[in-house]
Amino acid sequence: MKYFLEGSLVALRPLFEADIRLLWQWLNDREATYFMFYGQRPQTEEQVREHFMKQATNESNVLCIILNKKNARPIGFAGLYDLHFTARSAEFRVFIGEKKFWGKGFGTEVTELLTFYGFDRLNLNRIYLGVTSENKGGVKAYEKAGFKREGILKDDIYRNSRYYDSIRMAILRDNYYKTHYSAHKKRFSL
Ligand SMILES: CC(C)(COP(=O)(O)OP(=O)(O)OC[C@H]1O[C@@H](n2cnc3c(N)ncnc32)[C@H](O)[C@@H]1OP(=O)(O)O)[C@@H](O)C(=O)NCCC(=O)NCCS
């Protein structure tokens, strides 16, 4: 079976109703959400279902991350959010909820797959993101995938009894085609 997007480590497929229970568990996990807005309020499974159903619109494209093998279990979700049709921009977000899969290159490959998809298939001009400055794994994964730092929002996130700065990053179409496209095309095209 071919998945919607495939790398050598992970694949991305649509979210199914059966994934909701796992999403609910991840979103209530204090460690998995340590640097995030997610996890600030408790959420019921029904609230998580509603949240993801609302996002399944033309403005956001949320996919389930699985290992790239047959019948693989979901390990997280990622997507391009707030697709803007005149600016041709979108926000990238990723969440690997299964903690044993952190630090194995999956976050980097998900970022690469969704930027490839955003430029190659959606004809975007700009993909941006926000990340807590202390989320070292996240910042490094995004830089490896070609995102550049654009600025810092001071005290942008409150969590764990303190404020965190967030780093805004983006990748622009012209730069992507100069630096990453041909390698991604070889890895991710059919
Ligand atoms: C943040 C996240 C997406 C990163 O994905 P990942 O698969 O864990 O990261 P990768 O394995 O692709 O690592 C990218 C680089 O960062 C390094 N890295 C990973 N975790 C790190 C950490 N905690 N501290 C320092 N470096 C780290 C890796 O070694 C790798 O560098 P290398 O290629 O030079 O070895 C993932 O851990 C995650 O989803 N965490 C929970 C939710 C979250 O924080 N989402 C992001 C919100 S912006």
UniProtKB/TrEMBL annotation:
The lineage's top-level taxon is Bacteria
Q: Which InterPro entries match?
A: Acyl_CoA_acyltransferase, GNAT_dom
Q: Identify the residues that the record assigns to the N-acetyltransferase domain, covering every copy.
A: 10-174
Q: Which GO terms describe its molecular function?
A: acyltransferase activity, transferring groups other than amino-acyl groups
Q: Which Pfam families match?
A: Acetyltransf_3
Gene3D superfamilies recorded: 3.40.630.30
What is this protein's record name? N-acetyltransferase domain-containing protein
Taxonomic lineage from the root: Bacteria, Candidatus Wildermuthiibacteriota
